[in-house]
Amino acid sequence: MSNVQQAGVRAAVLKVLAELVKGAYEEARAEADGELADLNGSLGVATVELKLPTGDTIAQLTQSQSKQKVDVDERQLLAYCKREYPTEVETVESVRPAFRKALLGRLEVVDGKAADPRTGVVLEFVTVTPPGPGGTTLTFKTAGRDRVAAAYREGVLTLPDLLALPAAEH
Questions:
Q1: C-alpha–C-alpha distance, residues 23 and 13, integer Å
Q2: If you ran DSSP here, which 8-state letter would residue 164 be given?
């Protein structure tokens, strides 16, 4: 085989393998995320240390907590602040950004309705969306990537086991 043939075949094979590895990664990540979400929901587990078969800790998987979303009708916020906090309304007819952030940060949410805890007024111009499921973060430990590469080179980890590719369809 010529050099261009060898290089081309290698590139083609590695491209297919990269696509297969990417798909296997996405499946494994979704499975790990789902398992951690279940553990988090049932036992409150938020972080799991990830270890190679050798016992070396290589990374951790962490369940992040999502936050509720707050959408604001700016005109109604302005009208409310003119009434309740007139010194916080700028002459350009807007609520001072720092106060807006402080007010929205201290809102009390009951039954999906936001209220100003200082005045007790339910703020109809604020829409509260409950938090969705949190995501996860995969963080490698110091030298974790190197340990994975070494375990692969030493045969502790093998691509067929990691990819678990389905049988070819005929």
A1: 15
A2: -
pLDDT for 86: 93
Going by their DSSP bridges, the two strands 57-63 and 136-140 should be labelled as antiparallel
17: left (phi over 0), alpha (psi -120 to 50) or beta: alpha
3-state secondary structure of 45: coil
* Helix intervals (H) in the chain: 3-43, 74-84, 97-105, 144-153, 159-163
Instruction: Taking residues 61-79, report their average pLDDT.
Output: 88
Extents of the domains making up the chain: 3-66+132-163, 69-129
**Residue 138 banded pLDDT, cuts 50, 70, 90:** confident
| Structure tokens, 96 | 């001072």
